[in-house]
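Let us begin with a simple case.
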Amino acid sequence: MQVKWLKGTDDLTDAYNIRFKVFVEEQNVPSDLEIDDVDGIAHHIVVYQDGIPVGTGRVFEQDGRYYLGRIAVLKEYRKQHIGSLIVRLLLQKAFEWGAQEVHIHAQTSAVNFYKKLGFIPYGEPYDEAGIEHISMVVYKGTHEKENKI
């Protein structure tokens, strides 16, 4: 497995291809919502298996808060811990930047996945792109103890 970090100004074709397959084709998110202004300010990660891009995600700071987002793994590569690797590496980057807490807008179907990585849900569920989401947060100290980052 190979991990590649990209800035928003880099060629994001591999990340976009994964996101479109997962979010647009699989989950029916409108294609015009998939690429946004955040892509230009975020740091992106792409995971490759045997040279094939199989997973991606992004981390960014906005208004003093740190966020993860657009975490996606191609269907045929799920259940191989690629998603948790992506989240851990994105969190590590945010904590290196000085974050004390990191937020995510999680699909409610993925809440247990994020809980295992130290995230705590807060607030009420809401609709984002036609999919139910909930806000979640992980705190630096808690995450480091649980996941040894």
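The second case is a distinct protein. As before, the sequence precedes its structure tokens.
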Amino acid sequence: MIKIAFFAVLAVVLLSGVLFSPAHPGLAIHPMDQFEIKPLFGDGHGGLGLFTVTNQTLWMVLAIIGVVLMLVVGSRGRAIVPTRSQSVAEMAYGFVYKMVEDVAGKDAVKYFPGIMTLFMFILFANFLGLIPTSFTATSHIAVTAVLAMIVFVFVTVLGFVKNGAGFLGLFWVSSAPLALRPILAVIELISYFVRPVSHSIRLAGNVMAGHAVIKVFAGFAAALGMFSFLPILAISAVYALEVLVAFIQAYVFTILTCVYLKDALHPSH
């Protein structure tokens, strides 16, 4: 039965490739077109003054709505026996809470609401971007850079507020030989200011790369005719990987935020 089912599916795939193959197959792959920001109304130069509603604006708003629906509406009942939506909300809450407590310490728990908001926004933006014909807001460095700069400015200001000049101890490696400490201090200072760059590029680059690969395979599927099932199988595999990447990148961005928060609260090496 398994062999019969396999050959039946293969026959359907080959037949569909023959019936629906393009009349003039050819490669026309433009993987970066999906990241183009377009105004939703008009040409983007009028109507709303300085603010233009774009596809990026729309999908960021949808991500925010998704977070509100999940964390506020989904858990509003606060039932002893939770519903599915409340269970998911509680799992997300517990997951991020434990991350903050384990990485940054108990004294960082007071900043949990901001970190939870950051994690959920990135997570929803990543997952919404996996919907066909949607737009992935986190694929643009303009979005991820703003998020990274918010984290960078916050932890820097918090470090000086909490520790005063003692925050500079983050750059002074007291365990190293005295002659090397000034050199290491310069290296530490440079690496500190590079944080928002790596923080933002890591998220945007990984999200953009996965979507571009899927678009490339989709272009091959349109050009190969009856053999289009081969890139379609590749698309399925990459898409499954992208689902995992969508979560991992939100997790990595958040856990790095917790690490930076720990440095701000406890700057000494």
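Helices lie at 2-20, 55-73, 84-104, 112-128, 141-163, 181-223, 229-265. The CA atoms of residues 239 and 260 lie 31 Å apart.
Keep these points in mind for the review questions at the end of the chapter.
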